[in-house]
Amino acid sequence: MPRWGMVIDVKRCIACWSCTIACKEEHFLPPGVFFNRVLIGETGKFPSSSKLIYPILCNHCSDAACVEACPTGATYVREDGIVAVDDEKCVGCRACLVSCPYQQRTYYDQKVKDREYFPGQGKTEMELIGEKLYPLKVGTVIKCNFCAERVDDGMKKGLKPGEDEDATPACANACPVNARIFGDLDDPDSEISRLIMEKKGKQLRKEFGTEPAVYYID
Amino acid sequence: MSNKIHELVQTMFPPDGSGLKPYEWMVSPTRQRQWIDDKGIFLWLAFFFSEIGAGLYFVSLFYEYKAGLILGWLITLVLGGVIHMLYLGNPFRAWRMIMKPSTSELSRGIWIIGIFAALGLLQIVTAGSFNIVFNCIMGILCLLIISHGFATMNVIRALPAWSSTMVLPLSVISGIWIGHQILQFMFAVSGPQTLVSGMEIWAEAFFFAYFLCILLYAWGTYHSNEIGKESIILQVKGELSKISLAGVGGFGIALPLILTLIMWGGDTNSFLIFLRLASVLAGDLALRYVIMKSAMYKPLI
Q1: Among the listed residues A78, A68, A33, A74, the one whose alpha carbon sits nearest the alpha carbon of residue B88
Q2: From the CA of B212, how many Å to the nearest CA of chain A?
Q3: Interchain contact, A95 vs B93, CB within 8 Å
């Protein structure tokens, strides 16, 4: 069984937000909800300061704080390493949301559901179709799932996630500079394993001991 | 027109900070919002009522006072329980928490509250139920419920203001202190005055222990790391300073201290006991509020 992960090359990232938009399109996310973000910050002091650009998403930690905090088992780690939420089991206590050091979860309530991209104009056809194609349950927590539907469907068709677009997360497909590489962390010959080894991939906030499956290289 | 613009601004930049500014997310210390803002306020009240109800039950065990047991049991289950349910997004699924006691503090808390409800009812309705074994079991259950709220928060490693070592002792002491104050007031209006005077010695001890725990919590969190320091600064100098100063400092510490000194040595007075009870209730609510509101996450970059 593979263990899916992602490598993000922060040197390549040009902060175009294609990943953010592709993700919103893929999951039909309402205004104000992001599974993918691009953080921009600075380090050091002028004249030796430098700009930091960090695309972030759920880290799909193997020792995830959100899984530990969930009182119903709604948040769980799949065999392939993807941290998923079973919305049938979620009670909406938000313990996962509070415990996530990366703050990559969103509580989906009626207020969020009712948001319109054009306030006061009603929902567009695209928004209404989205609610049917990718229904989100009110009163539950939602998050990035590494586009598990694409990965699962792709694998059923015999495609290889990370190589074939139809089996790869939308954010990785959309990146115009190939800053995001998706693949199997347990396969020593996969591109992401090689990149992590060669470029000494770093995990975000490793000190929390959550063992993220998203690595950053520069 | 201005309403529409306001609505648009609210949609794009909602007060929870999750607006269309993805580049600003978690680039500086970010405050925890889910368990205190909006509907999260219910959780603050639920933890508070569970704690004081269990505190009252706990202290009543020592005085074998059934009215105290009944009131404590009702506060914990009716006020604490109902407010907990109001907070949940899907309250009708809450039973699922019972099915997974090994998963989290929240699930274990539900089990403990369930056992407390059953055994507490048995103790209340059974004559001669104040035996040492029953009292010990109920005492342990009460201590677990008192610390349940803060224990749930304490396991969250990402928030130094909650994962501080002093959070649990503070919750236990505050639960017992407030429970003791409610019981002393109940005795002051209905019981023998000698008992009320005798309770004053414990009131003095609990008050100073409570005060010490608050100081140690603030000192420990401030020196734990940069984010813990930020949380304490937010409590003392930031937007929460008024609540900290008036609520925690005034009602939680200064006024009870003055009243305790006036009644020093057991020279009690029903009105002063009532005043101190009201003051410590407001103070503890404020303390819980600032602790919950000031918790911050470390920036990601």
Answers
A1: A74
A2: 28
A3: no
Residues of chain A with pLDDT under 50: none
Please give the residue of chain B at the shortest CA–CA distance from A209. B157
Q: Rounded to whole angstroms, how far apart are CA atoms A89 and B90? A: 9
Structural domains of chain A, count: 1
pLDDT of residue B243: 95
The letter for the amino acid at A47 is P
Cβ separation of B156 and A31 shorter than 8 Å? no
Residue B103 has pLDDT above 90, yes or no: no
Q: Is the pTM value of this prediction over 0.95?
A: no
**What 3-state DSSP class applies to A49?**
coil
End-to-end C-alpha distance for chain B, whole angstroms:
39
Annotation: CATH topology of B29-297: Formate dehydrogenase/DMSO reductase fold (1.20.1630)
- Rounded-to-integer distance, Cα B104 and Cα B85, Å: 18
Query: What is the span of the domain harbouring residue A57?
Result: 4-217
- Cβ within 8 Å of residue B20, ≥6 positions away: A31, A32, B12, B13
Q: Say how far residue B264 (Cα) sits from the centre of its chain.
A: 27
